[in-house]
Design goal:
heterodimer; A: about 210 residues; mainly alpha; two-stranded antiparallel ribbon; B: about 80 residues; two-stranded antiparallel sheet; 5 helices; 2 strands; about 50% helix
Chain lengths: ~210, ~80
């Protein structure tokens, strides 16, 4: 029977990578909480210069470029947007959009974290335990590729209605980047299938004396 | 797949112990036990040749076939 014979260093590296993925998942969870409590926190950017780093809230950054250009022609666009964000219905739609974006990504990050952690364990058949989680991660990646543009469109449409009440749901996709993400997710899924097929073939061979 | 393994019969005829054959052939006793009971998916030609060499017999003395129409089904 095959075993993932990682060196001690590789095993430790796997566990460190798994922790990094789990931390990223926790960060995404914090973003959902932030979206629930205060949508404007989603627009916080951290700018660093020689004097240090400072967080800046710029809710207008949440708008697509064309809507932001339109908003900036009117009086006090930030105030208008803040008032719009004060509505409970708007906040709920923004939270729903953020969950559409982040839930598959959290699933992806946690699956990969668990899969890599299992791979880093030295006892037993590590690859057997790891592979189902990596396959789930690839499936979550595929779902995320589909869901992220939808969630973003939901949010930007809702925000755009602060300045244009007739703003309709519009899907804005950077096709090149989206296609690349889709291909990467498909490759990850195909690799997990190939590894599973290899494991099955190895197990069949083990039964030939 | 009704291929019958008659290895235990040949071992008895030649008065050879399983442990001795396993050592001579270079497989583990547990694998030899699985082979004797027919619970393996296959046997390598090299293993079969080594067994025949040690027991001074032919493959047909160790393996037999009971006809079954199921064997003509390719998905079996």
């Amino acid at each position: 029977m095959i075993e993932a014979r990682l060196t001690l260093g590789q095993s430790r590296a796997c566990k460190a990578i798994a922790i990094a993925f789990a931390a990223a998942a926790a960060f995404r969870l914090a973003i959902i909480c932030a979206a629930a409590l205060a949508p404007q926190l989603m627009a916080v950017t951290i700018a660093c210069d020689r004097h240090g780093c400072a967080a800046q809230a710029a809710p207008l950054n949440l708008l697509p470029d064309d809507v932001r250009a339109l908003a900036e022609t009117g009086p006090d666009p930030e105030r208008v947007l803040q008032d719009h964000l004060g509505s409970r219905g708007v906040r709920q739609v923004l939270l729903a959009g953020q969950m559409v974006i982040d839930v598959p990504v959290i699933g992806l990050l946690l699956s990969v974290a668990w899969g890599i952690w299992a791979l880093g364990r030295t006892e037993g058949r590590a690859l057997d335990r790891s592979l189902p989680w990596l396959r789930r991660g690839a499936l979550f990646a595929l779902i995320a590729v589909m869901a992220v543009p939808l969630g973003q469109a939901l949010q930007t449409t809702q925000l755009a209605q602060a300045f244009d009440p007739d703003a309709a749901f519009a899907l804005r996709v950077n096709l090149g980047r989206w296609a690349l993400n889709l291909l990467l997710a498909l490759v990850a899924l195909a690799v997990s299938w190939a590894l599973a097929a290899g494991l099955r073939a190895e197990q069949d061979l083990a039964e030939i004396v | 797949m009704p291929v019958v393994v008659n290895l235990d019969v040949m071992l008895a005829r030649r008065k050879v112990r399983s442990k001795e054959l396993a050592q001579a052939v270079g497989i583990t006793e547990s694998n030899l036990s699985l082979l004797k009971s027919g619970r393996v998916k296959g046997v390598r030609f090299s293993t079969l040749a080594a067994i025949c060499c040690y027991l001074d017999c032919a493959p047909g003395d160790i393996l037999d076939y009971v006809r079954s129409e199921d064997d003509l089904r390719h998905d079996a």
